[in-house]
């Protein structure tokens, strides 16, 4: 059988409805027992399906489950191989060692430890990285879209492009944003950016050009966004958040003519900006010429127990600059995002985009346009909602069982939970203790400008459901030790 030293499998007595379970179990046992060693290449799904008499989708499903457990990993141009870290127990399989990472719009950018104190067989469970399930990236659909783009690419396609973005993507985005988020725009009003970070850098330059020297943002809020704005703007003004979202009355007390908000799912509290607060915020923007609301719609695609929340932008298209990216829908590595600014800012923002690098790479933009036009991206998002919901449920169940004294916030949507800890607990000390025990988690205090109640931010999307009981039990141990 093709593959690196692949084993013989007898599938003759396996019931049809249990084939994926059986195959995943056989491969899992072979990896745990050493019959399949790190780096061994598994047969192509088509080949193994033919040998076993299974449907190809059955084999693909078994491979997917093992990839979720970090036992195997797909490699472009190679196939599916046994992961280097797969020798550990399959029941407690953890992600590969966390590596140093740059700041994201949801993270604090700190360096994770290179290894757990328990050694390489007990690598840390990472609940600190604000990532989707990256093993589920739609490789086949993306490769198909890229091949189609390259097959049809003309000399003009391969030349210099509009710094605002490929026209095909701007048209596809305007239609998709109108349909999915209610955003009011034409294709010419969409600017393709290097993620939300790129959009914030463009907007900061525009604000400085108009004479503004400060911007307000939510407190607590995303540390990555804060750091980007602190880099560009002379002053960043924190504004508190309560159960209804940004406290607009407090915003009025700040000397700022721009504010960054996450109205659909506030990070990290998970609250939705209440309708009354939305109206107050728009009224604040209308009080003075050139005031700007920056809407970061970072994970609005993921909702589980509530109806979709419309974007803020339709309430005041000439006051709101709407931005989002593919970081939570596909992968941060694509560095693709979009910005829908007020009409008065479009021309100067495109000029700034041109001056800072001529815009984003065109071929990935055209591949994304194909995914949007074909419906492949929306099908992927539906599948990811189901997968992330299972992980959300596992995380919540583990918290209720292992850490019942914590109050859980942000359950209805998004990719993270906020655990409010009992008063008097030092959340930074808890996070440090959990790290020593092999679990990475973000303390709420690092997302604050000013002191406030302690808490932990648990990012669940990239963690297999089977790992949460152990991870939360470890955090509970750290909480008890911090009292």
TrEMBL record:
Query: Which superkingdom?
Result: Bacteria
The record, for InterPro entries, names:
Aminotransferase_I/II_large (IPR004839), HTH_trans_reg/aminotransferase (IPR051446), PyrdxlP-dep_Trfase (IPR015424), PyrdxlP-dep_Trfase_major (IPR015421), Tscrpt_reg_HTH_GntR (IPR000524), WH-like_DNA-bd_sf (IPR036388), WH_DNA-bd_sf (IPR036390)
Q: Which PROSITE patterns match?
A: HTH_GNTR (PS50949)
Xref: CDD domains? AAT_like, WHTH_GntR
| Domain (HTH gntR-type) ranges | 17-85
Region (Disordered) residue spans: 87-125
Name a GO molecular-function annotation. Answer: DNA-binding transcription factor activity
| Biased amino acid composition, Low complexity | 87-106
Show the Pfam families listed in the entry: Aminotran_1_2, GntR
User: What are the UniProt keywords, alphabetically?
Assistant: DNA-binding, Pyridoxal phosphate, Transcription, Transcription regulation
Q: Which PANTHER family match?
A: HTH-TYPE TRANSCRIPTIONAL REGULATORY PROTEIN GABR
User: To which protein family does this belong?
Assistant: In the C-terminal section; belongs to the class-I pyridoxal-phosphate-dependent aminotransferase family.
Q: Kindly provide the name given to this protein in its UniProt entry.
A: GntR family transcriptional regulator
Protein species of origin:
Agromyces mediolanus
């Amino acid at each position: 059988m093709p593959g690196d030293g692949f084993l013989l499998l007898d599938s003759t007595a396996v019931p049809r409805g249990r084939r994926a379970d059986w195959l995943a179990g056989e491969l899992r046992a072979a990896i745990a027992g050493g019959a399949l060693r790190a780096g061994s290449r598994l047969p192509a799904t088509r080949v193994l399906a033919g040998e076993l008499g299974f449907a190809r989708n059955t084999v693909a499903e078994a491979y997917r489950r093992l990839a979720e457990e970090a036992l195997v990993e797909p490699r472009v141009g190679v196939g599916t191989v046994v992961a280097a870290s797969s020798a550990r127990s399959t029941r407690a399989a953890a992600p590969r060692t966390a590596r140093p990472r740059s700041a994201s719009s949801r993270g604090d950018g700190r360096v994770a430890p290179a290894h757990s104190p328990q050694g390489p067989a007990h690598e840390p469970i990472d609940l600190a990285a604000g990532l989707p399930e990256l093993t589920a990236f739609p490789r086949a659909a993306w490769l198909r879209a890229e091949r189609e783009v390259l097959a049809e690419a003309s000399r003009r396609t391969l030349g210099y492009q509009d710094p605002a973005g490929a026209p095909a993507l701007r048209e596809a985005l305007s239609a998709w944003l109108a349909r999915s988020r209610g955003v009011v725009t034409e294709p010419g009003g969409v600017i393709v950016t290097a993620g939300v970070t790129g959009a914030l850098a463009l907007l900061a330059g525009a604000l400085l050009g108009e004479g503004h020297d400060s911007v307000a943002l939510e407190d607590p809020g995303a540390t990555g966004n804060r750091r980007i704005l602190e880099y560009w703007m002379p002053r960043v003004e924190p504004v508190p958040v309560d159960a209804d979202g940004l406290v607009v009355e407090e915003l009025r007390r700040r000397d700022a003519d721009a504010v960054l908000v996450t109205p659909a799912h506030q990070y990290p509290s998970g609250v939705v900006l209440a309708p009354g607060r939305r109206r107050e915020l728009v009224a604040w923007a209308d009080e003075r010429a050139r005031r700007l609301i920056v809407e970061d719609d970072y994970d609005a695609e993921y909702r589980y127990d509530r109806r979709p929340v419309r974007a803020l932008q339709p309430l005041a298209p000439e006051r709101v600059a709407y931005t989002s990216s593919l970081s939570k829908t596909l992968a941060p590595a694509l560095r693709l995002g979009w910005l829908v600014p007020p009409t008065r800012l479009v021309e100067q923002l495109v000029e700034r985009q041109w001056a800072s690098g001529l815009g984003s790479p065109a071929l990935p933009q055209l591949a994304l346009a194909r995914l949007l036009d074909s419906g492949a991206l929306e099908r992927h998002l539906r599948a990811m909602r189901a997968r992330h919901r299972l992980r959300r449920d596992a995380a919540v169940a583990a918290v209720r069982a292992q850490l019942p004294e914590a109050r859980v916030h942000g359950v209805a949507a998004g990719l993270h939970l906020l655990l409010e800890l009992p008063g008097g607990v030092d959340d930074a000390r808890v996070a440090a203790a959990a790290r020593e025990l092999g679990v990475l988690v973000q303390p709420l205090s690092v997302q604050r400008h000013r002191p406030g109640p302690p808490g932990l931010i648990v990012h669940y999307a990239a963690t297999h459901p089977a790992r949460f009981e152990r991870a939360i039990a470890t955090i509970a141990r750290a909480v008890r030790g911090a009292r």
